[in-house]
Amino acid sequence: MSVIWQKKLKHKHYEVRTAGASVRLYTDGVFHTQWNPNAPLSGSLWDLFTLPAFLQSDTPKSAAILGVGGGAVIKQLEHFFALQEIIGVDLDRVHLNIAQRFFQVNTAKTQLIHSSAERWLEEHQHKKETFDYLLEDLFIAEASTSATKPEPRRALAADKNWMSALGGMLTSTGMLVMNMESTAQARGAVKALPLSGRAAFGSVFVFQKSMYDNAILVLYKKVLPPGAGKKSILKKLSGLQYSPSSIRKIMDFKIRRLF
Q1: Angle value at C-alpha 190, between 60 and 33, nearest 5 degrees
Q2: Based on the number of CB atoms within 10 Å of its own CB, is 251 exposed (0-12), middle (13-18) or buried (19 or more)?
C-alpha cells in the first residue's frame, strides 16, 4: 500500500493510501475509511452501516451522514440505492476535501457541510426536513495509556437529548444507524430514549463483526417482520447479482434483535 497524499497540520496528520483500486484514509494513524469501487462491500466494519438498509422493504431516498470521514458510506449508499439527496456533515474540513478529491464524493445530489453534528442538527431541525436514513458515526482519536496510537472513542454521549434529536430527524419509515464502542453502550443508548421516543421505533437491532468490539445500533421506525435478519439481507444481495464470492467476503457478521 502506497501513500499518495499526506498533510500535517498543527495538531493532525492525514494520509491517503492506495492499493490497487482501494483508497484508504488515515488520520493521526487511525484508519478512518476504505473504498474500492470494484468491491463496494469488502468485509469491513463500514459494511454494517449500509447492510441494515436491506433489512426493510422501504429503500431509502434521502440520507444524512454525521461523520463523513472519507465518504465510503456515501459511496456504498450511492451504489446500492437510488438516493435523491445525500447530506454529509463533518467537523474536519480536510476530511471533506479528501472525500471529494480522492473518494469522488462529488455528485450533484450530494452536499458536504463543514459543521459540528450538534450545530447542523440544531439548525436543520428548524427546516423540518427528515431523512429515510440517518447515520451517526462520530468518533475522535483519544490518547491511550496502553497503546502507542490514539484509540478511537465516541465524540458524543448517546444521552436522552441526543437520541431524541436524532430520532426526530427521521421519516415515518426512516432508520437511524449509530456506531457504538460496544454492545453495552448500544443498549445504554436505547435505555436513554424517553418513553415517547422508544415507542416511536418499531424495531431495534445490533449488528456486529467478530473482529471488532464495535456494535452498530440500528433503530427502525417500522416494525420489521420476525423473519428479518441476516438471511434476508444476503438474499437481497444475491437478487442484486452480487456474486457468491463477494457475498462470502462479507458474511462474517451477526445480528441481534433487541425488540
Answers
A1: 55
A2: exposed
β-pairing, 253-257 vs 203-209, is antiparallel
CATH class, domain 43-257, is alpha beta
- Which helix (H) or strand (E) segment holds residue 150: the answer is none
pTM over 0.90? The answer is yes
- pLDDT of the chain, 259 residues: tens digit per residue: 899 999 999 889 999 999 999 999 999 888 889 999 999 998 999 999 999 999 999 999 999 999 999 999 999 999 999 999 999 999 999 999 999 999 999 999 999 999 999 999 999 888 889 999 999 999 987 765 555 667 889 999 999 999 999 999 999 999 999 999 999 999 999 999 988 777 889 999 999 998 899 999 999 999 999 999 999 999 999 998 888 888 888 999 999 999 9
